[in-house]
Amino acid sequence: MPLDFSYQNLRGRSFKNHNLIGANFNYADIRGANFSYANLKEAKFIGVKAGLQKHWAIISLFLITLLSAVISALFSLTCTAVLLGFFADSNYSIETKFLFSIVCIIEFTVFFIVTARKGLLAGLQIITGTGVVFIAIISVFFNGAFAFASVAILIIAITITLPIAIAITITIAEFLGLIFTVIINIIVVGGSAILIFVLSKISIFTLAKLGVVLGCETFVLFSICIGWRTITEDKKDSWVRSFAIAFATTFGTSFYGSNLTNVEFSCAILKNTDFRNTILTQTCWHNAKQLNCVRPGNTYLQHLELRQLLVRGEGQNNNFDRKDLRGVNLQGANLVDSSFIGTDLSHANLQNADLSRAKLVQTQLDGTDFTGATLTGAYIEDWNITTDTNRTYATGTA
Questions:
Q1: Strand runs (DSSP E) across the chain, as ranges?
Q2: How far is CA 377 from CA 343, 354, 374, in A?
Q3: Could you tell me which of 379, 327, 370, 329 has the C-alpha nearest to residue 352?
Q4: Are strands 273-274 and 359-361 parallel, antiparallel or unpaired?
Q5: Which residues are CB-contacts of 172 (< 8 A; sequence separation ≥ 6)?
Q6: Hey, which of 28, 35, 239, 347 would disulfide with 367, CB 3.0 to 4.6 Å?
């Protein structure tokens, strides 16, 4: 008889390598539970709450916020000290300081534009590549290479670490984590810059002071925007998102290497859950929540459009060309006008799915179940079916 764990508190429990075929975990709290390499065929996880336990979420949020605050403070203090020291040095003329400012503004403006349009890595390549040229020019004509190099290095540090920290806090604590981290970093940066002004006794133009503070705050806010953009699955900086989710799922619920064939996750909360190397044949995800915050590995959950389709059942006019969707459960899904050219749909469940006018060209359909599916007007060419492919009562097929 299958085991019944429904409605139980299973936080932090280990089911590693267990045989749990058909087990009932409905509405259980499985945050931090370890199901690695477990056999969970036909198990029920309806309405479960997965992910990080509260104490791990709090600890992770605190550590990441602390790390980002320390980095922001270092960035602000060093930049302020270096730049104010340069501007206050009487060995440099007003013209030299002005030209130095123009070079810095041009360099970092280009960095902002490239990063916003092409991604963080492209921006860092620009600032490191052109930075070498600017440092050479500055060292020859303006004698301010040290100041520029110091600021450029810190810019690189802050724009790598802070977006990752922001992405992690959003993944763990959503808007609460974002607001908390933003407030802390803005206060730290502004406070650090003001502290330098108070202690340094450097007498320079008020406009220059204001410019340095605004510059530091601008880079922090820009880094926060990059972090937010990556967690919303912008492909320009997907590596930041991958790193953030990998960190956030470290102490979350783990299904690593488990067999989830015919498992039902309907209405489950799956934030910060590890699904790497799992078998997801015929797995049901209907109305699952926060599937965008799982660690998918190389499973079909890595595809944004497919995740939305699995949850909502609406995939009209979508493009799934040449994707590996073996074993996907699309029962009853709306796939009208969708394209599956060269897609591997072997052993997929397409029962009662609406594939009207869908493109099924060179589609792999070994063992695919089309029972009750609608194929009226579907464009079918060179699809690869076998004797295991079930087309029983499929409307529109020959």
A1: 253-254, 273-274, 359-361, 364-365, 379-381, 384-385
A2: 19, 11, 9
A3: 370
A4: unpaired
A5: 52, 57, 60, 61, 64, 248, 272
A6: 347
Q: State the Cα–Cα distance between residues 258 and 280, nearest whole angstrom.
A: 9
This prediction has a pTM of: 0.80
Token pair in block for residue 307 = 């995740």
Residue with tokens 């940066």: 189
Structure tokens at 293: 């915050």
Angstrom distance (rounded) from CA 81 to CA 72: 14
Q: What φ, ψ does residue 149 adopt, rounded to 5°?
A: -60, -40
List the beta bridge partners of residue 39. 19, 259
Type of residue at 340: F
pLDDT, one tens digit per residue, over 248-295 is 898 999 999 999 999 999 999 999 999 999 999 999 999 999 998 899
Q: Which two tokens stand for residue 289?
A: 């929540």
Residue 24 tokens read as 């009932």
Give 19's strand partners.
Answer: 39
pLDDT of residue 393: 46
